Amino acid sequence: MTATTATPGDLSVWDRVRGYSPSSRHLPVLATLALFVGMFGAGGIRYEGFADPQVVLTLFVDNAFLIVLAVGMTFVILTGGIDLSVGSVVALSTMIAASTLEAGWPPAAAMAAVLLAGTALGTLMGLVIHYFDIQPFIATLAGMFLARGLCYLISVDSIPIRDDTFFAIAAHQFTLPGGYFITPTVLVALAAVALAAYVLHRTRFGRTVYAIGGSESSAMLMGLRVARTKVGVYAISGFCAALAGLLFSLYTLSGYSLHALGMELDAIAAVVIGGTLLTGGRGLVVGSMLGVLVLGTIQTFISFDGTLSSWWTKIVIGSLVLVFVVIQRVMTRRQP
Amino acid sequence: MRKVLAHQLVWPTTALAVLLLVNVIATPTFFDIRMQDGHLYGSLIDILRNGAPVLLVALGMTLVIATRGIDLSVGAVAAISGAVACVYIAGSPEQGAASTAIVACSIALAVCVGLGLWNGFLVSVLGIQPIIATLVLMTAGRGLAMLVTDGQITTVNNDAFKRIGAGFVLTVPLSIVIALGVFCLAALVTRRTALGMLIESVGINPEASRLAGVRSRTIIWTVYVFGAFCAGVAGLMIASNTSAADANSAGLWIELDAILAVVIGGTSLAGGRFSLSGMLVGALFITTLATTIPTIGIPAETNYLFKAVVVIVVCLIQSPKARAALWVRRTAPLAGRATA
Prior knowledge:
The structure holds two protein chains of two kinds.
Chain A: H1 13-19, H2 27-46, H3 53-78, H4 86-102, H5 107-131, H6 136-154, E1 159-160, H7 164-171, E2 174-176, E3 180-182, H8 184-202, H9 204-214, H10 216-221, H11 226-252, E4 254-255, H12 263-273, H13 285-305, H14 311-334
Antiparallel strand pairs in A: 1-4, 2-3
Chain B: H1 2-6, H2 10-26, E1 33-36, E2 39-42, H3 43-66, H4 74-91, H5 98-125, H6 130-149, E3 154-155, H7 159-166, E4 168-169, E5 172-173, H8 174-191, H9 195-204, H10 206-211, H11 216-242, E6 244-245, H12 254-264, H13 276-295, H14 303-318, H15 320-330, H16 335-339
Antiparallel strand pairs in B: 1-2, 3-6, 4-5
Helix pairs in contact in B: 2-13, 3-8, 3-11, 3-12, 3-13, 4-5, 4-6, 4-11, 5-6, 5-11, 7-11, 12-13
């Protein structure tokens, strides 16, 4: 597939541009990028004010928590697993944050408690999955029920967050040149993406994640640390879900047991649309971020249009997942 | 004794018995069944009636899981089924007529069979992983149901339709009769003919089955259609029980309850074997649990917590690795021989 067989010195710039074909690893992500740009272009032509850079920034602002969630999910799916618990962990995180703040904890301690709880739950699921050989689907399903149940144990009602620090962070805006703005949550989300990309591509842990997704038994025979990595990805996913829960509580300034219902499906859809193979072993974390942006664009599209009903979001997301899965299937069939 | 303990139905049945015992201790009149106006009433009847949709969905799910698949879309299919039936009845000129209800149910079930064909096509022809293939319909399905009902909760007024979920036949609630009827039919067809064995062989190895002359593709396709059909009937029951189609919350999480029922019943998610009687016990367990928790004075919302504990305990008991670990610890002197 690569066009670098001839010595590069003999080629003109045009030849190089014409001969460029992206490696198959990057192809799905490029497809997602093209989809995102295409949707945005279509929106810009159809609706006034759609092509404004602030609309793009607002996509990040509104979906910061989903980006963080998708980052964690990418790790799990790359190993060939799945994590259904993340939506419930987001709800649990908002509940822990709201109730600890209500009890008078300092904000830093509340945040630490949230992150610790999420990571602990993720680690627990990872241990059960690896050491007791229980399918990720079932183990994380139990985690999902557990987290939702714990939410109700804390409180059945919604708890408002009245902490000054949380208010300050939620209201803070960074002004960019040109009068545009972003929120601190966007920076957290982007940092999570950058850190995840670094870990996946520049560390031994990241390489092992891809190896397990390719073939777990081969990874085991190669002497890679399969156990540590497999438990690790679920811990990362739990941590990301807790972080996403913090961002979500900043976004809504409340804790509620019914927050983030079905958000795990959005996260999984974003990862799939981002071009990560659900059987594991292939995919980029940047793709998942683009996947979230595509989902966000669909919602922006519908809110700009005004005549389309909200349920079209679900139908379009479902169709996009279908298209991407079928394309993946065709591509993996061609190159086994 | 060990043989008895090793039987796959022992643990689920014990759990169900314990749960019923807890109920009797909490409310001594729990087992009472009384006759009123020629209808049976009582806690046990309520459990069976509330459990009928879960039982139906779990029935289809058992066969799907036996082929090493999974069907996440059943909740959405149930919502679509109820939506189609209610919208048809609401829009027909003779809203109250029995014929309208029959036509409405037929259309709804036909739509569900179509959705099952779609799932089966994605899985068996395109070869997409079942989780993902059915995830498509799970996400899009509720949107489709809302498209059908136009985002409204469509209420209907039709006595014949109301009977599916709330009616009685020969003193017994009709929904129980329907669910048990479909259950017996499925049990008969899978266990008295070769079909059950063929489904299991496809679950163990689709390719080897195909080479041995089993039509794996057709069988996989069929179980998804059957799963969607069962979900459709369950959706009709849910809609009929309230005489309304709620696209958002009808059958919400029913797929998870169904999968839970199947797993508790001892059917492995890895496919290759299934137990319909185990599934029946599992489905009864799930619905009894939902009834028990408010009965013993715990808020109904903590239901989830108990479900989580049950899933973990049941899975650990069934996991060979966990069993081995526990066994070694309990009989430490024999550990060497047991693991050798």
